[in-house]
Every structure is written in structure tokens, then in C-alpha cells.
Amino acid sequence: MANAPAPATMGISTTRRWTWRHAWAIWRLPIGVQSLLGVVLGATIGWAFPAVGESLQLLGDVFLNGVQIVVIPLVFPLIVLGISRMESVKRVGRIAGKAILYFEIVTTLVLLLAIGLAKLFDIGVGAPVNGADAGAVEEMAQGIDFAELLLHAVPDNIVAAMAEGNLLAVIVFATVFGIALAAIGERARPVNEVLDSVATAMFRVVGYVIRLAPLGVLGFIAYDVAHYGFGNLFSLLGFVAVVYLGLILVVGVLFPIIAAIFGVKYFAMLRQTADLAGLAFVTRSSEAVLAPLLIRLEKFGVSRSTASFVVPLGYSFNTDGSVLYQAVALVFIANAYGLDTSIWSLLIMVGVLVVLSKGMAGVASASIVVLLAASSTIGLPAEGVALLLGVDFIVDMARTGVNVVGNSLAAAVIDRSEARATEKRAKASLPNPAAAADADTSADAPRVSPSSADEYIATGGRRDN
Length: 465
Description:
The protein is mostly helical. It is 77% helix and 0% strand. Keywords: Cell membrane, Membrane, Transmembrane, Transmembrane helix, Transport.
């Protein structure tokens, strides 16, 4: 009889072993699968236990802060190294010029697509505008201020700008610093070596933080479902549907056409970056995936110098998902209030958004601010913008994911353009056609794979044995 408690003890021990075994199995799952589990669990908690769901926002905030704290220490050395190691300052200007031109052309194409879709479906006609509260957006209302934008890009204290997370100022300063290092030649080697070590260490830190992504996803989804619910989604379902349709067309039609024109393997690029776009979708933050995105693009074949310059620049000036949302929203508001949506009015909307979307880099709640500024410019009521705030978090998820894909494609296109230009110059300098044929063969050779530290991050912080 003295041995009677043994079976109960054995049962507890077995249960513990079972729990740890399954927890370890979940931990070993791919990071994307873990994130999907986080979505399902977070939505369930937010719906069934709203109070708990709202408190879980802390998990999401901790994860997001962990990523953002690494962004500046990583982006700064990468841009500096990318520029200082280029063969000439002329190439820096060429890449910047191509990037800005690309951003403007693609932004215009996306806006025209958005306006066309919104007009086709007459989005907003008969929408319930009486419940809109303009007071909800009054504090955000502001016009475009290019003087403020310039001061934002060239601050009086770069350390303070870094502490504030002013990515645009960091890009500008890193570009100038990289040009200066390139100008002094061999004397820049010690600085480059230090920056290279810093970047490698930051890649490792990002790998550690990304392992916490499923917990961050769980926290964000639980909070969104608990706080916003699904009521606003149903009342503005038509608007949400048109925005999502437009974003699908951008990712599934427009981007592949652009990639085909420039010879970029678009779907191979998507396979490399899709899980990061999904993470940006859930967290509603492009910065959450900036560091690992640079590594994935390098693994895809984009040179580090191009990716580390074009992608951060695109985060400020190439927001394809956001501008599509803003264009559909303007047409929705105009139709909801029975205002003019003739072809000339729509073209004015396009022109205003082309300018404003490039003038709000670094502004908090940028999409809403741009929408308010555009509405004020063309005479639309602020109440219409307030009406859309209830579903902003739903469309924000999709437009953020598309922004990540758009900037990935931008880096790949610019890099491919540079590669073609290099091939042409190489052919022009060769003495005979046979040598030119050899150059073609070597140009198609695969790129050197990333370093072991980069592979560590690209695989989500684990190594395959």
C-alpha cells in the first residue's frame, strides 16, 4: 500500500514529458507555420476573451520594438559600406536617379489602376456617411510642408535623428558619409572593417528577434480582433473588397509585367520574400522585416550595395500599397458625398497623391495624414476620412505587405538594370566577338552565396543539419 501514489506521480511525469515534447515540436516548425498558428490562436483569444486579447498587445509591441531597435544600427553601416565600396560616386548618383524615376513611374501606374477600379465599381455610392466623426482625425490634419520635409531629411543632430528612428535622415547622412569614405580610398579601410563587423553582428541580433515573431503575431491579432471586432468590416465591406482586389492586381499582374520587362524572376523572388511580406501583413510594420529582407534579396541575387540603398529609400518614397489605398479612399469619399468624379477630377487626384505620397516620409500615421492632406487639397470633407478609420487596420495589413513586395521588386529591377549596363560596358571594351561571348557566359554565372551569418538569418535563426 505504501507504493500506491506511484501511478499518479508517473502520470504527472508522463504529462510533463508530453507537454515539453510537443512544445519542442512546435518550436522546431518553420517560422511561417508558427506565425500562422499565432494568427489562429490570437484571433480565437481576441474573439472569445476580449479583455485578455487587448492585454496581449504587449507581446506585439515588445516584438516590434525589438526589431525597430536594430533597424538603424543595421541600415546605417549597410548603406555606408554599399556606397564606399562602389567603384565610383557616379554609380551612386546613377542608382539614386534610377530608383527615384522607378518610384515615380510605378506610383503613377498604381494610382491609375486604383482610380480605374474605384470608378468601375462606383465605390462609396450610398455609403453611410452620417455616423462619421471628423473630430477623430482633426489632430492629424496637416498640409504638405516641403520645408519641413527637407529639415526632416537634414537634421541638426544625426545622433538625435537616429535615436528618433528618422530613417530618411539616416539614409541621407549614410549616403554622404559613404561618398566621403570612397573619396579617401585606402584610409577608409579600418572604418569599413568596423562597420562590416557591426552589420554582421546586427544580422545575428535580427535572427534572435525574428524567432519571437510568432508571439508578436499572436499579440497583434488578439488585440486587433478584441479592440476593433468585425462590425466595421461588414459595414464597409465594398471598400475593403476593392482595396484588396486592387492590391491583388498589383502583386499578381502589374509587378509580374514590370519584372518581365527587366528580366527579374518575379515568382522566385516572391518565394524568397513571401513569409516576410506575411509578417509585415500581420504586424502592419514594414520596418519589422527590413533587416531580414535585405538578406533574402541578397540570397535571391540582388547585390548588397543596391539592396541596402534602394530598399530603405523605398520605405520612404515607394509605398505602392499605401497609394492604392489612398486613391480608392478619395474616390470612395467623393462618391459618398455625391461630389464630382469626372475624368479631370480623377486625374487631379492622381497628381495630388503623386506629390503628397512622396512628401510624408517619416510622418506618423502617414497614410491617414496623406489622405487628409489630399482631401483638403481637392475639397473633400474630413468626415469621409473619419468614416474609414474603422477599417483602416484591416486594409493597413494588406497595403503594408504589398509595400514590402514592391520595394523588393524595386531593388531587383535597379540591380538588374545596373547588371545590364555593366555587361554592355564590358562588351564595348572587349577586342573581339569571341571574348564578348565569353563575357556573356560569365555574366550569367550564379552569384556568390551569402556568408554563413547571412544564411543564419535567412533561415529564421536556425541551421539545417
